[in-house]
Design brief:
- The protein is mainly α.
- It folds into two domains: 9-198 and 254-492, Up-down Bundle (Growth Hormone, Chain: A), CATH 1.20.1250.20; 199-253.
- 78% of the residues lie in helices and 0% in strands.
- It has helices at residues 8-30, 32-43, 47-50, 52-74, 77-97, 101-129, 135-161, 167-187, 201-224, 229-251, 265-294, 300-328, 331-347, 357-384, 391-425, 434-464, 477-483.
- It is globular.
Length: 493
């Protein structure tokens, strides 16, 4: 990919617009974590229904990842950016004025269609406008900016909705997106070469319907139960469609995702491990605010403050982790990271209605420290195991897999929280007030969900032990990881 000859000032302006765009897209995701209990009460929906606002967003976002590569081949940068940001802005406006859950869900889908293009486009822009020697710095800067959104999003939202409507954060998102759109219209220019590529529409259909039905089954199991015929049939049909999708990717000449890269053992184990780690990161980021507000009966602001230290640590550690990886490889980081993650996740299986929120802050922060030790080395080791010609396919698959895992994992954890509340609700002493019993029931459900997360983490740890750095790999590790779309996916935290 050739670099574009432009002035330093103009380059910095373009990069600033792209970073603002990425920031607002991620902020839009994280603000719902603390707003969800308020939305549930105002729109009169339960946890299983409300989590679709997050999991549905992630599903559409995941589908857009491979589709964006096609769009960047066919459409010039400037119109693609303006279309994506315009779509995101329209979705944000609809979300701010949504009168009911159906309209709000539609708005989230529209937002996801725009946000799903903005992130890869931002990364593509940085690779194009910076020389190879400066890409590591550029993507590292992008990583720090992007990680800032998950740190302030929940707290920012909590501070606002404790005093005003949950709609206000969406209105603020509209304002920032409008500014980004205006500046993008002024400064963004086209710097990509278009080419004729063919899109396999059937693959898009199979992946969307297959994973969408699976997501529906996991989400609805909390209220209907896994033994319900609707859930069973939906799961079976979704698995059949996904298998058809997989078979098609292996047989056609222009696959949406080239699944043949899974023949590389290290990449296979890295991808599976990365998906589970993503699942164990995204789900708790939703569970904790629900627990803080509904079980501890604390404010939305405090639920955001519980998450903030962990998010900040996760962002700041990206610089250290990359440097450590360059010197010592992935094994020390993987073993220490998974050990800490397993212990901290297990400790969250014993939350009560009177658990100290300081205990929660400390455990969650240490847990996110562990996640920061894992994501980059696992992703990079997997990508480095591939031949250069397969790296673009590998990164697309890894990003797609993480987003799908985050979406399905969140749905599964909320479902188990609902089921756990029902299972254990009858065992809770009925001597207390109705409010206290309700709080204890929510806490019990959260404990069941974290027990499931602990099991997932143990499985991921076992897979991670098979991840090895190839001896003949290119040692410019961070340049490889940054240059091939392996930015941390904490937008979905």
């Amino acid at each position: 990919m050739s670099n574009i000859e432009i002035s330093k000032r103009r380059r910095n302006l373009i990069v600033s617009v792209m970073l603002i765009s990425a920031f607002v897209a991620i902020l839009n995701q994280t603000l719902l974590n603390t707003a969800l209990p308020h939305i549930m009460r105002e729109l009169k929906i339960d946890e299983s229904t409300s989590q679709w606002l997050i999991t549905g967003f992630m599903l559409v976002n995941g589908v857009m990842i491979p589709l964006t590569a096609y769009l960047m081949d066919r459409v010039k940068t400037r119109p693609l950016y303006l279309s994506a940001m315009g779509t995101f802005l329209i979705g944000s406006i609809v979300a701010a004025i949504a009168p009911n859950f159906g309209v709000l869900m539609t708005a989230r889908v529209i937002q996801a269609m725009g946000a799903g293009v903005l992130m890869p486009l931002m990364q593509f822009t940085l690779f194009t406008l910076f020389s190879k020697e400066r890409r590591g710095f550029a993507m590292g800067l992008a990583g720090l900016v992007i990680q800032f959104a998950p740190a302030i999003g929940p707290t920012f939202t909590g501070l606002i909705i404790d005093h005003v409507s949950w709609r206000v954060p969406f209105i603020i998102i509209v304002g920032i997106a409008l500014i980004a759109l205006v500046f993008g219209f002024i400064f963004i220019s086209s710097y990509n070469e278009t080419k004729q590529t063919k899109l396999d529409k059937r693959s898009i259909l199979y992946s969307t319907v297959g994973f969408g039905m699976m997501l529906y089954a996991f989400s609805s199991a909390g209220s209907l139960g896994f033994a319900n015929p609707i859930i069973i049939v939906t799961l079976i049909v979704s698995l059949i469609i996904i298998l058809i999708f997989v078979r098609r990717q292996l047989t056609i000449s222009n696959p949406l995702l080239n699944l043949k890269v899974f023949k590389t053992r290290t990449f296979c184990f890295s991808t599976i491990t990365s998906m589970i780690v993503m699942m164990s990161m995204v789900g708790p980021a939703l569970l904790i605010p629900l627990y803080v507000q509904n079980a501890l009966a604390l404010s939305a602001l405090l639920s955001g403050l519980v998450i903030m230290p962990g998010a900040i640590i996760n962002g700041l550690m990206s610089v250290f982790t990359g440097s450590f990886y360059d010197k010592y490889g992935p094994r020390p980081l993987i073993i220490s990271g998974f050990t800490i993650l397993t212990v901290c996740t297990f400790l969250l299986c014993f939350l009560k209605a009177d658990t100290s929120h300081m205990y929660l802050i400390i455990i969650y922060a240490i847990r996110m420290f562990a996640v920061s030790l894992l994501m980059m080395p696992i992703n990079t080791a997997g990508i480095n195991a591939l031949e250069n010609k397969n790296i673009s396919h590998g990164t697309a698959i890894m990003n797609f897999g993480r987003v799908m895992a985050g979406s399905l994992g969140t749905a599964l954890m909320v479902t188990f929280m609902s089921m756990g509340s029902k299972w254990l609700g009858s065992t809770i002493a009925t001597s207390g007030s109705k409010e206290m019993i309700q709080r204890q029931t929510v806490a019990a459900g959260v404990d069941v969900s974290f027990a499931l997360v602990t099991l997932f983490v143990v499985v991921a740890f076992s897979f991670a032990l098979f991840i090895k750095e190839p001896r003949n790999t290119n040692k410019n590790i961070r340049a490889v990881s940054y240059t091939h779309l392996t930015l941390p996916t904490t937008p979905y935290v």
